[in-house]
Amino acid sequence: MEIQGQSVPVDDPRKETAALYKTSGIKVVKNAEDKPSAGPPFRGVPPDLETYRSRGHRRLDARTYDTKCTTCIWGCRMPVEMIIDQWNPSKKQYRFETFCYGPKSCPFYRPGPARKVPGRKGMSYTEEDWVDEDATAHRGPDD
Ligand code: SF4
Fold it and tell me: Which of 10, 25, 91, 122 makes an SS bond possible with 16, Cβ 3.0 to 4.6 Å?
């Protein structure tokens, strides 16, 4: 479905679950087709959260997300929680990261640079590729 309208960006996206609010003047420009497009990007009604959790995700390059994946049901930008000191788990930081839950064979997919997580006393942890490979090892390339 394609719609148009006017919205106001939230003041601080780090503190809101939505990017826009006060939406008005919504008009349907093009109604939904019966069949979701073959993709990519894969469009249609997103599955339930349990389906996302069971699929597992891979990191997704933020620029690829912005340019190719915002309309795909398998792409997301979401807040992540980082425990900075494992001896003091209450010490946390938050940031946004982009992920793909889609087929591993998707030609749009780019992982982007390995992510670094800040640690105690100025140290940092690099999340290696095996983390994503492990999280999606139960799926075939086209699942
Ligand atoms: S890379 Fe992932 S999110 Fe982007 S179009 Fe492909 S399946 Fe969808």
Answer: 10
Q: What share of the chain is helix, strand, coil (3-state, %, to 5)?
A: 20, 35, 50
pLDDT tens readout for residues 15-30: 888 889 999 999 999 8
Please identify, by atom number, the ligand 1 atom nearest to the C-alpha of residue 60: 1
Determine if ligand 1 sits within 6 Å of the CB of residue 99: no
Q: What is the pTM of this model?
A: 0.82
Q: Report how far ligand 1's centroid is from the alpha carbon of 131 (Å).
A: 18
pLDDT per residue as tens digits for the range 94-112: 999 999 999 999 999 999 9
- 72 in contact with ligand 1, CB cutoff 6 A: yes
